[in-house]
Amino acid sequence: MTRTSGRVFKAQHRQRYRQIAAALAHHGLGYLISLLGLRRFVPLHRPGPAGRAPTRPEHLRLALEEVGTTFIKIGQILSTRADLLPPEYEAELAKLQDAAPAEPGSVIEAIIISELGRPIEQLFASFDATPLAAASIGQAHAATLNDGTEVVVKVRRPGVVEQVEEDLDILQSLAAAASRRWDLADQYDLVGIAQEFAQTLRAELDYVREGRNIERFAENFRDDPFIHIPRVHWDLSTARVLTLERVRGTKVSDLGDVEAGTFDRATLARETARVFLQMVFEDGFFHADPHPGNLLFERNGRTGLIDFGMVGQVDERTQEHLITTLLAVTSQDADQMVEAFFELGVARRRVDRGLLRQDLEHLLSRYYGHPLGELRFSRVIGDTLAVVRRHQLQLPPNLALLLKTLGMLESLVGEIDATFSLTQLIEPYARQLMLRRFAPRVWAHRAARATFDGAKLGMELPQHLRRLLGDLERGGIEVGMRPVGVEPLLRRLERLVNRVILGMITSSLVIGVSVLMLIYPAGIAATLTTALVGVGVTIAATLGIYLAWMTLRARLH
Asked: Which pTM value belongs to this model?
């Protein structure tokens, strides 16, 4: 194994580390190479991209695309974390294209036969070997069942799971290395975020889980005539193969090409928003990628929803606090917003409440006198997230995904009907949630739960106190103190001392070789002297070149 600044990098991943470091170096992201502890894996020379110089966010996106599948997915997930990234990075990472060259039809058919245990001819009346779409994890093929039903067969690419697992292992190592070198990474719990990303990505690899998600949506909307959730054919599905009813319809981008009067845009926008708001505020389980390509408007008046790889869940508490925040904006109540922030758990470090309140008052002043129905949701959320980033707060992952989804939804319905206001439709949900929050039944339930928790705590408190006193007596309780801001200085000092020592060793070798040449002239132990001088010169030259290279690379990065 390779050890870099106290962090162990597994030897079997060395080649992958080199690929990652090369991609970062190629796009001039030397600061990331330093933060991630990848200096030793950087190639001596890697030319940058030709043509127009991309911006730093563009460089990051291009580097992620160059590294491949896992990091593209991580970038897409990271684009949902507006609490962590500035808007320009968020917008750029949202452009990441999850596309890949198609696997040969013979490879895909072999996977299907292996998974389902029968020849293609027995499984399907027809199967198109040319994919409808090819992504980095899998690709989708059109097919027809023996009863004439049109389906889409999603097949996971060979070797994807192994590659993703290797990359997730690497990601954990890089997150830990960054947390050692960068205080902000430690404050945001970068290791924990990497673990969350890993869970999300592993869920997308499992087609059985996606199928279960689809069935849950189908159950939630079983009596809704507007939404069409595709049926899952479980007899033709496994963790690697997912067979779904094929949904046909008009995409949002193609509405302008359809004959006027075929679709009522105002109705489509309102009903689409209603469906997603029901997911968020009633079901607590939502489709997290309301991309225009994932909605298909059918001639019979229904709307087909596809691609259920990314979903989110939101509990009742988060729903209430989201509405509370929106109501605080319209009522100009900064104290209520501060409390909502802390109750949502966004503060991972000590926060100056007074300064936070001052920033929120400044934010609220922009919306003075505007009712909720007149506000643009994405603008309110964008301004709020700017305050979140300024105070280095962190949203719970489910809330960050929810806000991203609602922002995408507002953009989607705006593309369908430019006159539609998402916040007008949110208003009834806000009133409903407030009424539900103060209903007698809810208060009775909370009082009963609080009584039970209080009684339980009262019974357990003596036992906990006895354990605490026992630990104190045995000296089992330690208080740790860590000075803030000292570790980066110590690391720089350590590197400087190492270079000074290396320089001293090199100088000593040069001086020693010179003394040997003066003391032992030619003819006296000539062979031994020549050998010693040669070895000394070689070692001194090697150390000198290495020292110069390390110094030059430190300046470049």
From this structure: 0.71
